[in-house]
Amino acid sequence: MGHVKLHIPGPIEVSPKTFEAFCRPMIGHRGQGFKDLYARLQPQLQTLLGTKQLVYLSTSSAWGVMEAAIRNLTQRKVLNCMCGAFSDKWLDVAQRCGKTAEALQVPWGSPILAEAVDRKLATGGFDTLTLIHNETSCGLMNPLAEIAALKAKYPDVHFIVDTVSSLSAVPMSMDALGVDVLLAGVQKAFALPPGLSVFACSPAALARSATVRDRGYYFDFVEFQKNAEQHMTPSTPSVSHVYALASKVDEIFAEGLEARYRRHATPNDMLRQWATGHGFTLFPEAGYESRTLVCVNNGAKPGGRTIDVAKFQKLVKDRGILIDGGYGKIKGTTFRISNMGDETPATIQSLIDILNDALQQL
Ligand SMILES: *Cc1c(COP(=O)(O)O)cnc(C)c1O
Known about the structure:
The chain has 362 residues and is of the alpha/beta class. Helices cover 41% and strands 15% of the residues.
């Protein structure tokens, strides 16, 4: 059977060029070759995250760093801002780490608003906060800048921000926002095979981490910093991923960041227009739609058209494209289409032609 192109919101389609970089011959991770590779990558990653801090490479999926952030930083109590499957799960993860955690829960598809975060933090006792910038399960983008502005009012609360499905697709400025830990997995907008995450810590987060007991070894932030200063990682990294990341980041800077952000915005607009043009509504609250995917409402909320998603998905797949049939409790009552990575208006137009053809066959 031929390859089915991925338009699910992660992992996403990986280009032959990236695979070629991924398959380069192995080198030792303590040798000069690896150090040179990581050192060359470092300033580019810092620009993408918007930080002067060293960017670390973690051989794990994003959840490794999401759990690590809790284990390195939470001593008293964490506030988990919850608006979808991934952000909801972070509360569970914090509790499984034995931490005291409190939920700020809004209905899936509604944004986390700064006023609500402020009210919660004002009750006191928190030393950490988790926020997902782009809640991939609902196709919703939270107002990160407005929430991050609260950092000035609560300087002792460490803000941990997941940009897994937004980093490199929209502008990010970790330092200017005052974010303490910013993290992303590479199988989303970076369009790499899954298995590597990038993240950075503020000086305050590193200082806090150094005082926290039982933070383990593999994900110890202090170890990441010590090693990154020598252009290395604490343990053997997936060197193949680092090759692939270097290749991708070169592509990103050759294209130019502004052009890249535009290249994500235009296909995203095209997909939104496709959905509304066919009588659907979007699942997230208006004004908070993601820029890297569309989550189409298919009965999860009142209004708009509904279709047999499983059948639609199969018709699209028969035409060589995999779209997502909805996540968790909104499976089937929503469906999702990604525009992350290497997509262009032309590739999205071919996708839309296929979607239209499949809709007609329903
Ligand atoms: C995909 C995703 C994750 C989980 O990433 P893994 O690589 O499966 O650990 C976390 N947060 C967001 C927003 C995601 O989209």
